[in-house]
Amino acid sequence: MSFRSSHTAAVAALVLSALSACSSDTDDAASNDPAATGGTPAAGGAEADAAGNATEADAAVNTPEADAATNAPEADAAPPAGVLGRCDYTNTFSQSAECKAYTGAGWTAESAGENCLAPVPGARGTFVPGGECGFEAELGRCEVGDPAGEGYLLVMSGDDASKCAMARVACETFAGGTFMADAVCSDTPPPPPPEAPSAFIPPFQDCRDPLPGEPAGTGPGGQVCTWTAISGCTEPGRRFEDYASCDVVRTQRPQYPVAPRTTSSPDDPRLQDPAFMAELAWVTKEVEASACVCCHTTRASKGGASDWNIEAGPIWTDTVSDLGLAILAGYADSTAFGAFPPDQNHGFSRDQTGLPTTDVARMKAFLGAEWTRRGFDESDIEGLPAFGGPLVAQADFVPQACARGEGVDAEGMVRWVAGDARYVYVLEAGSDNPGVPPNLDLPLGTIWRFDVPPDGRPVPTGVPYGQTPEGAVQRFPVEGAPAPLVSGHEYLIYTLLDVGVPLTRCLFTAP
User: Fold this and answer.
1) Nearest to 228 by CA among 216, 211, 246
2) How many Å apart are CA 495 and CA 423, to the nearest integer?
3) Can the peptide bond before residue 438 be classed as cis, meaning omega within 30 degrees of 0?
4) Which residues does 376 contact at the CB level (< 8 Å), separation at least 6?
5) Burial code of 273-309, b = ≥16 C-beta within 10 A, e = fewer?
6) What sign results for the dihedral spanned by CA atoms 338, 343, 345, 350?
7) In principle, which of 42, 209, 356, 434 could form an S-S bond with 350, CB 3.0–4.6 Å?
């Protein structure tokens, strides 16, 4: 069987599946996005879907045929030249109809039909040979990929103009496509800035007294100290939500309730296997100590668990999609999400498996056995793409020369485009692109960095180099002024509206 072929294209379209998934986050981001630059994805919302909390590509979501039929074009409509067919599906989050047209010359009827089984994460589509995408009301269309290869067209239905900015930046910034606005979005200005913008709350350590009846913690005065982060874990044997705030964690990767795809049968023979059940109980305890519970339990999530649920029975691992299993087992690299060193995270490691664990070999053995039980082998692991959507794309991004006056100018002013920034970096040319905390947000080669706290206002362009603006905090260097720039040397300017939300990232030469 082939695992890779039905998932690779879906991962590339991940961000577009969340256009309406989280209105508060998308509205905040859209307010700072000049449509002409197409450079600002939604703060949190895009990253959340990239992080995969709710959108494993293999999730079995049944597309309502009536809903698709209401908005789908006629099956016998004359397609434009080169269109092999279309895929009709319902967006898992917004429950609005969307369509994917297979326009590239590299598609075959077989590959397009297989892709339509999961056109974007969380959805299952209906393939219509020769059909063209079209809706009565559209936000716009996104041309993606190589017309000579497996290029495609994503068509987003809707008449809500507040979603236009997000549609554009999701297409152009993350999918790498070309956005063509429909009438709904053609003359829509960005909405005014919100009064209280939501923002990514960076990780911090929360120290609390142990719950009544629980033993003393290992922190100062017997407290339990837990990193409040999506990659954080509390002490083994405790529950994460008892010692840290899941609401804070969800600012780092917002969660969307998606019902689990399946549950196991009460007659499953594994239920009578004591060794299996003991390992399942251990894995469950490992998950309960991690921030995974903030999205993958009913009790600690917001509105319901996302796709897989450790409270689902009788064997909750059956609710994990095939792609999700590959991520949890570490077969698909998810290190773009960041991780703490085990000695700072109560012994939990997340650099070799997607699930944090105190015993990597034991966790890999359990999840590997499930991978084999589902009929996969090592050939299905080879070539799996790194998982993380826009986070991976940002890590792989190759900066080019600044073309619009970005960088540090002759007056010593740091300038950028595409909107006000919450994070501003000046780095050595050739440095890694900044990623997410706790371990990827301060690359080697950083010369100067300042941040605006989550409750502060992003700052406009035009900051004197080395002078941290009022309300911001210098993160590097920890003390003193940054090193002076050398005239004629090349540097990287990297500014973000929020973590994972780039504005300007290009190379400039110091005057």
Assistant:
1) 246
2) 6
3) yes
4) 1, 3, 322
5) eeebeebbebbeebbbbbbbbbbbbeebbeebbbbbb
6) positive
7) 356
**Tokens 């007659």, residue located:** 267
- Give yes or no for a contact between 332 and 323, defined as CB atoms under 8 angstroms apart: yes
How far apart, in whole angstroms, are the C-alpha atoms of residue 120 and residue 126? 12
User: Do 301 and 294 form a contact (C-beta atoms < 8 A)?
Assistant: yes
**How confident is the model over 72-91, as a mean pLDDT?**
62
Contact 15, 177 (CB under 8 A): no
* Residue 219 exposure: Cα atoms within 13 Å on the Cβ side: 17
CA distance 30 to 65: 32
d(CA 247, CA 267): 37
Q: Can you give 125-139 as a three-state secondary structure string?
A: CEEEECCCCCCCCEE
Distance, in Å, from the CA atom of 388 to the CA atom of 337, rounded to the nearest integer, reads 7
How far is the C-alpha of 116 from the C-alpha of 93, rounded, in Å? 18
Task: Map out the domains of the chain as residue ranges.
Answer: 4-186, 204-380, 397-509
Residue type, 304: G
pLDDT band at 232 (very low <50, low <70, confident <90, very high): very high
Inter-residue contact 102 to 115 (CB < 8 Å): yes
Average of per-residue pLDDT across 117-134: 80
pLDDT in tens, 280-310: 999 999 999 999 999 999 999 988 888 899 9
The span from the CA of 230 to the CA of 349, in Å, is 13
Helix (H) or strand (E) holding 428: strand 423-428
Q: How confident is the model at residue 121 (pLDDT cuts 50, 70, 90)?
A: low
Q: At what angle do helices 360-373 and 274-288 cross, to 10 degrees?
A: 120
Question: What's the full length of the chain, in residues?
Answer: 511
- Residue-wise pLDDT tens digits, 367-411: 999 999 999 999 999 888 888 877 888 899 999 999 889 999 999
DSSP string, 248-263: HHHHHS----B--S--
First to last CA, the chain: 58
Contact 46, 170 (CB under 8 A): yes
Contact 329, 364 (CB under 8 A): yes
